[in-house]
Specification:
Length: 220
Amino acid sequence: MKLLVIICSHKFDVSWYNNIIILNDYMKNLNDYMQNFNIEVDYSGISSQDDFHNYESIISFKYKTINTKYQFSKICDFITDKNYELDYDWYMKIRPDLKLLENINFNLLSVNAINARARVYFGPKKIKYGMSINLRECYYDDNEHNVIVDDQLFIFHKNVLQKGAFDKIEAGSVTGWWGTNENEWVHSIVFESRNIPINVIGINLEFIRDNSFSADLNIY
C-alpha cells in the first residue's frame, strides 16, 4: 500500500517543526499500528513560498509545489497537474499547524468517500474525536444529512481521485456568502456537486494556532 502525505499551507513555519516530527513518527509506525499492512509513505509539500527547507531535515519531499491560492485550490491544482504521474493507493492532506495526538486507523476508512472529521453534523453517529473544533456543532438525527467536512485533515483513496473529487476549480466557479474564502462549506459543496460522500471518522489532534482540540460527535 502506498500513501502520499500532502502537507499544505500558506507557509511552512519553523514554529511547527515539532508537528512534522510527530507526523513523520506516526507515519513510520503505521506498519506496526496496522499490523498486516505494508505501507510505503511519500511526502508532497505545497506552500505559498519556497520554504520547504524548514522541514527537510525531518522528511524528504517527493513533490514540492509553490502555489499562492487557497488550500483547496492548492490541492486541486496539484492533483490535476500531477494526475498521470501519481500512483498511490491513499492520499492524506494535512496542515503543518496540526499536531497529531495518535495514529489514524486506516481500517475505518471508506475507499469511496472523503474521510475526515465533521465541522457541522446532523445524524445518528457517535464518534470519539469526530468533530473538528471544541465547539460541538453536531445535532442528533435518525438520518445523516447536511454534513460539513472539516478541511484541516482529510484522507481519500485513489477511487475518489479518479472520480474527479479534486479536479481543478475554475476561478469564480464556487461563490456564496463566504466570498473567495475556500472554507469548509466550499469543500462540502464541491464534493457534493461531484457526488463524493463524506465519511466522518475520529482524528485525535490539536490545532496549534488556536490551541483547539478535536471534539466528540454526539458523545456528551
